[in-house]
Design brief:
By secondary structure, the protein is an alpha+beta fold. It is about 50% helix and about 15% strand.
Length: about 230
Amino acid sequence: MAPDNTQGEIKALRERVIQLETELVRQKLDGRQSGEDRFRFLMDTAPGMIRISGSDALCNYFNKSWLEFRGRTLEQELGNGWAEGLHPDDRDLCIGTYLKSFSARQPFRMEYRLQRHDGEYRWVEDTGVPRFEEDGNFAGFMGSAIDVSTRKRGIFTPDEEAVRMVFSLTERERQVLVLIAEGKSTKEAAAQLKISYKTADSHRSRILEKLGVHETASMVRYAIRSGLVAP
């Protein structure tokens, strides 16, 4: 069996996204049509599916790979049209993660199922980074996605109830949950997140309360069942 090179592909795609973001800034500064043509050419030859959103959080561009994967036109995907392809069980978590990252102007990374042109839902790993104008004003997000179904198939399917419960946590609480589930102590989690031990312990207490459990082992099971950490 050939080795799974998914992680290498994801790394290459992230590097290309950074290059494309740099090119986008240059194109805007350039202001020439030739610059825009070159940028779109680079977008369409990128090794993955790419989309761009404006400062209103609505998507205003999808590259050729994305449109071919979806089997839809640019006009159909624009705005929130792309979200029509999200699996119903993943929709709330996906949109919620995106909007929270958008509001915080922070990068995101998530996995969800997206409908392909043949009707099959495929697992994709989606990474987004904020975009800023030359003057520092927020311009929106650039996102990249790659099909990771081969890696996911037959290995793990998130538990819907666990996903719902974990989604009820705040972003910081999920960060604490992940670190504890990965074997970190509360003190170590606090140090990694650069918060006080008291704050981290408070987050841990709220996690237990919101999940309706009383010990660390049950917290870890929720993290695994929801897909926050690997089984």
